[in-house]
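Re: the request from the purification team.
They wanted to know what the chain is likely to look like in 3D before they choose a buffer screen. I agreed to run a prediction and write the result into the notebook, where they can find it.
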Amino acid sequence: MNPCTQPFAATPAPQLEALFRDIAATRMQGIPILNPALQVEAIGFQLWDGPQGRLWVGVLLTPWFMNLLLLPAEADSLPAVPPTGETVIALPGDALPFMAGHEAALGDYRLCSLFSPVLQFADQDSARATALEVLKLLFPAPQAAAPDLSRRRLFGLGK
């Protein structure tokens, strides 16, 4: 296991929000691309069986970006990123390019930029709704099996 990659046994949302709130108050303080109507929020994090194992996937919204993130739920489950800087990962709804990210307090993660900057959002609710819609498109709910309408089934002659 990569020493910079600690798997998250539970949702990483609280750690993400704490870390990026700290970054907003320190490293990003006074940067002109900040949207003052937005706050740091980890949105819709869920487990997903990725190409190399279980991952946490969700959207991280900050006053300066909205990114789709992948974080490890198991050791060595983060997809490798080549030296060129990005790798395409096939999600259920689309294949998207992800880059490597790292924060000392968080470890390694993968990110796909959805919006940066995020000045087009009037408020937190509209940004959150966009993030949830992106997750819904990328991770559609499983479809229920269609009912068996065969003649044999209708007359009780088969399974």
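For the purification team: The helical segments are 13-25, 124-138, 151-154.
Please add any questions underneath this entry.
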